[in-house]
Inverse folding.
């Protein structure tokens, strides 16, 4: 099983609560995922076994916009 690294831009991630919500959404589909979210740059770095499509869908389902 390969681990992929994605860098996504989440335009409406404004605060640490947002990054926590996004982290939980990603870890709901991959509990072993590593998530680093920077609210200043709007960048979310994800190391995961899930697909990029699945990660983007999880973030969208949590109410955020992935660029």
């Amino acid at each position: 099983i390969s681990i992929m690294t994605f860098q996504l831009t989440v335009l409406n991630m404004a605060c640490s609560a947002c990054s926590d919500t996004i982290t939980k959404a990603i870890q709901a589909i991959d509990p072993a995922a590593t998530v680093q979210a920077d609210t200043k740059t709007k960048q979310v770095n994800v190391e995961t076994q899930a697909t990029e499509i699945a990660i983007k869908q999880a973030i969208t389902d949590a109410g955020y916009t992935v660029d």
Observations:
- Residues 35 and 46 are 5 Å apart (CA to CA).
- The first strand starts at residue 4 and ends at 9.
